[in-house]
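Progress against Task 2.4 (sequence-to-structure conversion) is shown through the following example record, which the project officer requested during the mid-term review.
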Amino acid sequence: MDFQKLADFRNTHNPFARRLGIVVEEIGPGRARVTKTVTAEDLNPVGRAHGGVYFSMADTACGSAMASHGHMAVTVNASYNYFRSANAGDILTAEAAEVKSGKTICVYDVRITDQNGTLLGTGSFTFYRLEQTIGL
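Structure tokens generated for the chain above:
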């Protein structure tokens, strides 16, 4: 599997993540890293990054790690823990790592940090592996 080609594919074939400014930086066997700079449009009414920003980054990172096996997948369950908030201008990184890679059910853990390495939250995402392969 050409992981750089897969990252490029994920960046060009995910209009939702692209709209949010989430970029797949790296994919490897059972792992992935995505980044995003928080903008004014990402803020909630109290001036902090909206929880959906973190959740979307986490889902994108875990989905990209899942894709490292060459199959399409869909999220069937997810849990995310919010520890700290980010501000406009912060650069966030979500790193996903495989916990279980099964024939149909796969589980990934994710950590989101800011540009200073401060842990903002963690999550666990479960995917259903589809028979459809990623044709690169």
